Amino acid sequence: MRRPLVGALTTLLLTGTGVVGVGAGSATAAPQSEPKAAKTKAVDFAGTVALSNCSGSLIRLPGSADNDPALVMTNGHCLESGMPGAGEVITDQPSARTFSLLNATAGKVATLRATKISYATMTDTDVALYELDTTYAKVKQQYGINALSLSGDRPAAGTPIKVVSGYWKRIYSCNVDGFVHELREGDWTWKDSLRYTPSCKTIGGTSGSPVVDVNTGKVVAVNNTGNESGERCTVNNPCEVDENGTVTVRRGTNYAQQTYGIGKCFAPGNKLDLGLPGCALPKPTEEEAVAALR
């Protein structure tokens, strides 16, 4: 995964853990606007957030209501407590983490605060969802910002996408290149990962950025990693493993984790319920579940 950033750095680290240069035309810095293709949705920074070490987004699930507690989505490896171990699942853990909410031109309009980590893991996927102390309706009323909508549909190869980093205030444009049966990095394995075409040269601090389908304006994935130096299956150098166990290394290629199934794991009121039909997110162990109730 791309290393989370600690404080203000003078060097650019990879999103999760590594170093990659930003290619010409691969990213757009705020407040510049990007060319808009016909019949596509304008994508800007409104609803994205900056964390202390990563990027993220104020996210609305397909079943969310205006008065539900709002959620922020980022990577599991961006947790303030450090990266979860392989097989570890965190649910309903108290948190007072803060997030800088951005407007369309990447200006900070508010500081949002969490009450808990609703869900976080680096097993099968790399995601963290924080519940806030405010609702979507209050955020809209107070700051004029709508949450980004999480798509309930799986994206298709070739889909034009934008990776929107609240930390660096940059937007990367590319397409969905394809999908990876298993993406392995160090101790972690992620399933059905989304691979970018080469122009999304994401860098450190873009971890947790929403990946937006330009056709619908909805979030289809969360940015999380890339192969930095061509090593095989090591930290900062994920490898692809197909159904037959064949390993492929793609140096300089970056990836995201799909998010279309997340909404199936939340009941009305944005309440996490991993027992719902169709929910495929990893579940905590019995010990982790008991600890979450304390």
In short:
By secondary structure, the chain is mainly beta. Helix content is 5%, strand content 38%.
**CATH topology term of the largest domain:** Thrombin, subunit H
- Average pLDDT, rounded to a whole number, is 90
Distance between the terminal alpha carbons, to the nearest Å? 31 Å
Estimated structural class: mainly beta
Question: Can you tell me about this structure?
Answer:
The chain is mostly beta strands and about 290 residues long. It folds into 2 domains: about 25-45 and about 155-260, Trypsin-like serine proteases (Thrombin, subunit H); about 50-150, Thrombin, subunit H. The protein is built from 2 helices and 19 strands. The chain has helices at about 135-145, 285-294; strands spanning about 25-30, 50, 55-60, 70-75, 90-95, 100, 110-120, 125-135, 150, 160-165, 170-185, 190-195, 210-215, 220-225, 240, 245-250, 255-260, 265, 270. A hairpin with a 2-residue loop joins strand 11 and strand 12 (about 190-195). The longest helix is centred in the middle third of the chain and has 8 residues, at about 135-145.
Properties at a glance:
single chain; about 290 residues; mainly beta; Thrombin, subunit H; six-stranded antiparallel β-barrel; 19 strands; about 40% strand; globular
Outline the fold blueprint.
Elements (H helix, E strand, L loop, with lengths): L26 E3 L18 E3 L4 E6 L8 E6 L14 E6 L3 E5 L5 E14 L5 E9 H8 L4 E2 L10 E6 L4 E16 L2 E9 L13 E4 L5 E8 L12 E3 L5 E2 L5 E5 L7 E2 L3 E2 L13 H8 L1
Parallel strand pairs: 3-9
Antiparallel strand pairs: 1-11, 2-3, 2-6, 3-4, 4-8, 5-7, 6-7, 7-8, 10-11, 10-13, 11-12, 11-15, 12-17, 13-14, 14-17, 15-16, 18-19
